[in-house]
């Protein structure tokens, strides 16, 4: 199948479950949810409105498939057992159906060119915008891939990239979980000589390749569906805006691909426990932290070797 004839897969759907449990049960509930879903969980960062008891709010996503009903039954049984082990309020459960949307369709309704960092401006490919001296403009058409520049994790990563190319030029860059290719494109426009974007989602690869052409950097950047084990370094800069659990799992592999003195930018991490575990893991493996950024409930790191 040619790139131009790429056909999007049908939109995916999930069941989002949100539970509220007594603080004393939060860890066991989070572990149960993580095991049941096979992925990470989210802790709400808002204030506890119950002034009598300490309540934790935890969310997780179930794949909407044939196993969904069985997993929901197990969760309800688990919560029922918890309710008999404490004088705190009975655990709360909320279910919500989540349908994957076409990012491009929703983005076009509201987005205008926006300055993300000192030098980086992101604009939708269909908008006209006059370049200003000293700025770079990234044309992005997200399609069904993640990475418009508006999410806190993406904008913090772009700010780190801007700083990296202010101090020195990273000649070779690896963008892990490239999505729309926005981070790699920024590197190429700021002076990188070679950029490789990788992702396991074919929609992301299609979107990234389209955006690479749109930004006229096909001679500098490529995007492909590759595993880290099939990539050889070294790279002067690696960016990885994914999720905490995957980042934690691949940290050692990323370090092997770094050149001496190279930088590693990591994002997609919730503040609190997730941020602490990433920082501890990177320090254990010999990385030094250059800086950390926080925005809303999200954290991002710039480490160096």
Structural overview:
With 305 residues, the chain is of the alpha/beta class. It folds into two domains: 13-99, Alpha-Beta Plaits; 103-304, Rossmann fold (3-Layer(aba) Sandwich), CATH 3.40.50. Helices cover 32% and strands 30% of the residues. It has eight helices and 14 strands. The protein has helices at 26-37, 68-83, 103-110, 152-167, 182-190, 202-214, 244-256, 273-284, and strands spanning 13-22, 42-43, 55-63, 92-99, 114-115, 120-124, 136-140, 172-176, 194-198, 221-224, 235-241, 258-270, 288-295, 298-304. The strands form three sheets. Strands 10-9-8-11-12-14-13 form a seven-stranded mixed beta sheet, with helices on both faces. A four-stranded antiparallel beta sheet has the order 2-3-1-4, with helices on one face. The radius of gyration is 21 Å and the shape is globular. 37% of the residues are buried.
What attributes does this structure have?
alpha/beta, Alpha-Beta Plaits, Rossmann fold, 32% helix, disordered N terminus
Beta-strand portion reads 25-35%
Tell me the major beta sheet. Answer: 7 strands, mixed
Number of domains: 2
Oligomer: single chain
CATH class of the largest domain: Alpha Beta
Instruction: Give the helix tally.
Output: 8
Rg (CA only):
21 Å
Helix content: 25-40%
The average pLDDT is 82
Q: What is the CATH T-level topology of the largest domain?
A: Rossmann fold
Q: How are the strands of the biggest sheet laid out side by side? A: 10-9-8-11-12-14-13
Euclidean distance between termini CA atoms: 41 Å
Low-confidence regions: 1-9
Give the overall shape, derived from the CA principal axes. globular
Under CATH, the homologous superfamily of the largest domain reads: Vaccinia Virus protein VP39
The string of secondary-structure elements, in order, is EHEEHEHEEEHEHEHEEHEHEE
How many DSSP-defined strands?
14
Would you tell me the structural class of the helices and strands? alpha/beta
């Amino acid at each position: 199948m040619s790139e131009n004839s790429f056909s999007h897969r049908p939109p995916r759907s999930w069941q989002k479950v949100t539970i509220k449990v007594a603080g004393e049960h939060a860890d066991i509930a989070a572990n149960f949810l993580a095991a049941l879903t096979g992925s990470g969980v989210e802790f709400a960062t808002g204030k506890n409105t119950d002034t009598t008891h300490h309540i934790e709010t935890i969310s997780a996503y179930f794949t909407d498939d044939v196993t969904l009903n069985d997993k929901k039954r197990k969760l309800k049984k688990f919560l029922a057992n918890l309710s008999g082990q404490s004088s705190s309020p009975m655990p709360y459960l909320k279910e919500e159906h989540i349908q994957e949307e076409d990012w491009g369709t929703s983005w076009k309704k509201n987005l205008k060119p926006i300055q993300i960092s000192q030098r980086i401006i992101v604009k939708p490919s269909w908008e006209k915008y006059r370049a200003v001296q000293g700025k770079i403009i990234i044309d992005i058409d997200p399609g069904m891939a993640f990475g418009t520049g508006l999410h806190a994790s993406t904008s913090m990563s772009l700010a780190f990239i801007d700083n990296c190319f202010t101090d020195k030029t990273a000649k070779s860059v690896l963008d892990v979980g490239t999505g729309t290719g926005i981070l790699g494109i920024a590197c190429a426009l700021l002076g990188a000589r070679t950029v490789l974007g990788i992702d396991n989602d074919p929609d992301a690869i299609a979107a990234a390749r389209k955006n690479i052409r749109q930004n006229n950097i096909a001679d500098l950047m490529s995007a492909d569906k590759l595993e880290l084990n099939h990539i050889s370094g070294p790279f002067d800069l690696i960016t990885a805006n994914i999720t905490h659990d995957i980042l934690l799992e691949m940290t050692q592999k990323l370090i092997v691909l770094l050149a001496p003195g190279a930088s590693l930018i990591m994002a997609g991490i919730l503040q609190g426990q997730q941020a602490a575990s990433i920082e501890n893991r990177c320090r254990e493996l010999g990385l030094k932290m250059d800086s950390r950024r926080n925005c809303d409930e999200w954290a991002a790191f710039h480490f160096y070797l």
